[in-house]
Structure formats: structure tokens, C-alpha cells
Design goal:
By secondary structure, the chain is α+β, with helices and mostly antiparallel strands. It folds into 2 domains: 6-200, Cytidine Deaminase, domain 2 (3-Layer(aba) Sandwich), CATH 3.40.140.10; 256-360. It contains 7 helices and 16 strands. The strands form 3 sheets. Strands 1, 2, 3, 6, 7, 8, 9, 10 and 11 form a 9-stranded mixed beta sheet that branches. A 5-stranded antiparallel beta sheet has the order 12-13-14-15-16. A two-stranded antiparallel sheet has the order 4-5. It is globular. Residues 202-211 have a biased composition (Basic and acidic residues). It comes from Glycomyces artemisiae. This is JAB domain-containing protein. Residues 183-258 are annotated as: Disordered. Residues 229-240 have a biased composition (Pro residues).
Length: 361
């Protein structure tokens, strides 16, 4: 195991920008670009953190930065300030995922291989879903540094905050094309409560998960439990119509129905993962949310090249597995090794866990 540790130095103005953008989008992923310089020791200093570009994609369980915005901005800051892209940041809002997902790790690896840059920094934000309801909501900010992103080599990382406003922020406002200025908007609200976290090495993280799963202690879920988000109170109607008939309640919109299904599935997944022991080194994530009300729970074991997808849906109040597939991603043309259909989601998850142990043996 690599004994080195990493440090992300960042101006307080840029931390505040990241926290404000996260607080503005409590139910979907958001993010932005990070620009700065690398030290000889492999530690980044972040001089600028952006909001999303105008064509960024923001969804419940996915964020993709606007590539044109990122490229134009990198050319601009390199030409005028001599700084470069050092990574990206994104949020997991209330998903209950307090670590980088398997998709996040693959994104860093793929970016590094395409660009020829082995060093990469990734800042993750999320809301503390275990926080007492009577306390102000905290935005948690967790740093990650890859010593070699092409190999997925991630170091334990902590923040060192440089107080004050980055000297490049005000200067850049005068140089930006008009359509990109919103990515550097000042905080639009009272500064949210911040909690700066420290990341662990991947091996330490999953070893800790296994250690906490013994019977004497409460098991730690791969997906942290998140309470259901309370619906906002609707205003009281002014009164019944003059003819005395009660006005019918409006039907929920399609978006409201999708959100309700997503919350139900997410809650059931978290319950199951809390009860069952996920093998060490297996990354769990929610991959996508289909329009017709299903999502994919992905279990990825990079060390053995096996990915399992369990496509889930709600049926008459029960969580069912619509499809369960297993792939070996190390082959030149990855093919599905096993495809099963079952009506019991927990049975599929148990089969996935058992097969990971079988592949390792």
C-alpha cells in the first residue's frame, strides 16, 4: 500500500463557490471544473473552481461537465494566468453516496488516459443524511488526489484552505465570453454550513467497511441510509368553489411520480445493503434512472474485472429485479456472462455477492 498522503490547497472563495452550487441543487448532481497548478510533490493548488458550463448535463445520479466550456476555459486561463486544469468536482447531493462511485473512478481513469495526464484531483460534495433535522444543513466537501489516475492509484487526501478570494477570480470575469459568466457567479445565498472531510486510500476505506460489519458492531452500508425527503407543505386553498363542490386535487406530475418511484427504490436498496455484507473492493452505485421507473444498481470489482448490473423496479409496492447481468470487462469485446430474470430483488443481490466471492476464489 502506498504510504504517501496528499494535500489539496484551495482558496476559501473557491470552496464557497462549490458549496453554494451544491446547496442550490439539493436533488440532482451538479459540479464544475478545477484549475490551478501541481507542486513538485504532486499536490494541487486550486486557484479557480467553476460552476457547470451552459451545456452541462445534470441528472439525479449523473453529472457531465460541458466539454466545450471546459476546453475554452482551460485555453483562456493557460494563456492569461499560466494555470491549467487539475481536475473536476461534483456532488452526490442526498443520494447517500459519501465516496466516489465506480463510475467516478472510471471517469478519472479514462480522462487521464485520453489526455496523457497521470495526476488528477476530484472533489466530492454531499449532504450529511444522518444529521439531526433541527441542525442547519451541512455541505460536506471531500478531497481526492490520484498519484496515477491511469492505474486508479488514489492517495489519502486532506484540505488546506487559503483564506481570501482567489486573485484570478476577479481578473477572469473581464475576460470571459458572456455565455460563460454564470459559471463564476458569486454565491447567491447566505454561506452554507461547510464540513471539510478527509479521504482515505481505497484499500483503507473498504478494509474499514469489512471491519465494521462484524456482529459486535453496527454494519456499515455501501450506500448510507438516507431519510426520505419531506414534501413541501402546500398552501391551504382559499375555500371551496361557490357551488359547494369540493375542488379535486391535481394529479401528480410525471416528474413527481418519477421522483417518488426513485425514492422508494433508493430506500429499499439502502435497507438491503445495510443488512447484507458487500465484499471488500466492490464499488456500488446507482447508474441511471429510466423514464419508465427503473434504475440500475451496479456492483463493480475493478481488481477482477467483473461488473454486475441489477435493474430494479417497483411493482405493486415490492422491489423486483427486472434483469440481472454479469460482465467480464477485461475481455477485448466485453460480453454478458450471465443474464437472469427474477422477481425478487434481494435474491438477485445475494446471488451477486455470492458470485463475487466465487470469482475471487
Amino acid at each position: 500500500m502506498d504510504a504517501r498522503r496528499a494535500l489539496i490547497r484551495i482558496y476559501s472563495s473557491e470552496i464557497e463557490c462549490i458549496a453554494d452550487e451544491t446547496a442550490d441543487h439539493a436533488d440532482i448532481e451538479t459540479g464544475g471544473s478545477l484549475f490551478g497548478l501541481w507542486s513538485d510533490g504532486g499536490n494541487p493548488t486550486i486557484h479557480l473552481a467553476t460552476r457547470p458550463g451552459p451545456n452541462a448535463e445534470r441528472h439525479v445520479s449523473q453529472f457531465a461537465q460541458d466539454p466545450d466550456f471546459h476546453w475554452v476555459l482551460e485555453q483562456l486561463v493557460m494563456h492569461h494566468f499560466g494555470i491549467q486544469s487539475v481536475g473536476l468536482w461534483h456532488s452526490h447531493h442526498r443520494l447517500g453516496l459519501h465516496e466516489l462511485s465506480g463510475g467516478d473512478l472510471r471517469r478519472a481513469r479514462d480522462f487521464s488516459r485520453r489526455s496523457g495526464r497521470t495526476k488528477f484531483s476530484d472533489i466530492l460534495t454531499y449532504f450529511d443524511t444522518h444529521q439531526a433535522s433541527d441542525r442547519p444543513r451541512e455541505v460536506c466537501v471531500k478531497p481526492h488526489v490520484y498519484a496515477d489516475a491511469t492505474a486508479g492509484l488514489q492517495l489519502p487526501t486532506q484540505f488546506q484552505v487559503i483564506q481570501g478570494t482567489s486573485p484570478f477570480r476577479a481578473a477572469l470575469q473581464r475576460l470571459l465570453p458572456r455565455e460563460y459568466r454564470s459559471a463564476f457567479d458569486r454565491p447567491r445565498r447566505q454561506r452554507p454550513h461547510l464540513r471539510l472531510e478527509t479521504s482515505m486510500a481505497q484499500e483503507d476505506r473498504y478494509a474499514e467497511d469489512v471491519a465494521r460489519a462484524v456482529p459486535e458492531t453496527a454494519p456499515r452500508a455501501a450506500l448510507s441510509s438516507a431519510p426520505e425527503t419531506p414534501r413541501p407543505l402546500e398552501p391551504e386553498p382559499a375555500g371551496p368553489p361557490r357551488d359547494g363542490t369540493a375542488e379535486p386535487e391535481p394529479a401528480p406530475s410525471v416528474e413527481e411520480q418519477r421522483a417518488s418511484v426513485f425514492e422508494q427504490i433508493q430506500h429499499r436498496i439502502e435497507e438491503m445493503v445495510t443488512r447484507l455484507e458487500i465484499p471488500a473492493g466492490v464499488y456500488c452505485e446507482v447508474v441511471r434512472f429510466h423514464d419508465y421507473g427503473t434504475l440500475v444498481f451496479r456492483m463493480d470489482a475493478p481488481s477482477i474485472g467483473i461488473v454486475q448490473d441489477i435493474e430494479l423496479a417497483m411493482s405493486d409496492g415490492d422491489l423486483v429485479a427486472v434483469r440481472h447481468s454479469v460482465r467480464d470487462v477485461r475481455s477485448r469485446d466485453p460480453q454478458e456472462l450471465i443474464v437472469t430474470k427474477t422477481r425478487n430483488a434481494e435474491e438477485s443481490l445475494r446471488k451477486a455477492i455470492a458470485s463475487f466471492r466465487k470469482f475471487r476464489s
